[in-house]
Amino acid sequence: MRIATWNVNSLRTRLDRVLAFLERSSIDVLAIQETKCRDDQLPVAPFEAAGYEVAHTGYHQWNGVAIVSRVGLKEVETSYAGQPAFGKPGQEPRVEARAIGATCGGVRVWSLYVPHGRTLTDPHYAYKLAWLDGLRAQAAGWLAADPTAQVGLLGDWNVIPRDTDVWDVTAFEGHTHVSAAERAAFAAFEDAGYTEVTREHLPAEHTYTYWDYQQLAFPRNKGLRIDFAYASPALRDQVTAVTVDRDERRGKGASDHVPVVLDLAG
DNA sequence: ATGGTAGTGGTACTA
Description:
By secondary structure, the protein is an alpha+beta fold. It has a single domain (2-264), classed as Deoxyribonuclease I, Chain A. It contains six helices and 16 strands. The chain has helices spanning 15-24, 45-49, 123-145, 180-191, 197-201, 233-236, and strands at residues 2-7, 29-33, 53-57, 65-69, 74-77, 85-86, 94-95, 99-104, 107-113, 151-156, 195-196, 210-211, 223-224, 227-231, 239-244, 260-264. The strands form four sheets. Strands 3-4-2-1-16-15 form a six-stranded mixed β-sheet. A six-stranded mixed β-sheet has the order 5-8-9-10-14-11. Helix 1 links the parallel strand 1 and strand 2. Helix 3 (123-145) packs parallel to helix 4. The longest helix has 23 residues, at 123-145. It is globular. The chain starts with a strand and ends with a strand. The mean pLDDT is 97.
């Protein structure tokens, strides 16, 4: 079985690329982030025609997460328990479309779009830390309830865990993604019993999954490693290989992120 | 050359 994660930066704009990727790479389950559409705008028919089911949550033109599967799609949840809400000052805080879970082929798959944080003094930054901490607490509970569960936490984590996960970490001094608090919140998933399997299989430094659209970042290889997959022990045991589809960043109409693919035994 | 990238939606906001 093959499971992948990909921040597509608009599913409607990227639909042809997503369908081509599913076929080219024989993907069974795809965790998608930043669909940038409401449920009623989701292009479902093209996926069904290709043999996939789709689960999605999206409220407007921002965020939006989905799971696409051809090995079953059951027990869909469109947020995790206790997921923090966010709203601008003076607005009612709302739980955003940043997490969706479903059971596919025996694996509990979560597609996650961790809040960006914006700046270290922005309320969005505190929201980001709370969001990660809340998810970790739930994920620890899932394992406590069933230590043999196959659970995958896949997505755009918006954290640069190591200095060598960016072309020049000094360019990020004073910015989000590299702060000690964010890195601690990310690392806490290891303490909760999960293993970040993409690094386990792809340990090379400067292995990037994202290149900004600006400043010719991709041709200059000024990238970030921010897309990851935490796996429970039972799922980790099944992972035989991980691939970053770097070529997907090429050409006209690319997302700024590329897919990360997990090969599973059986 | 007073910009710079992209998407959505609407004359701004997010990343």
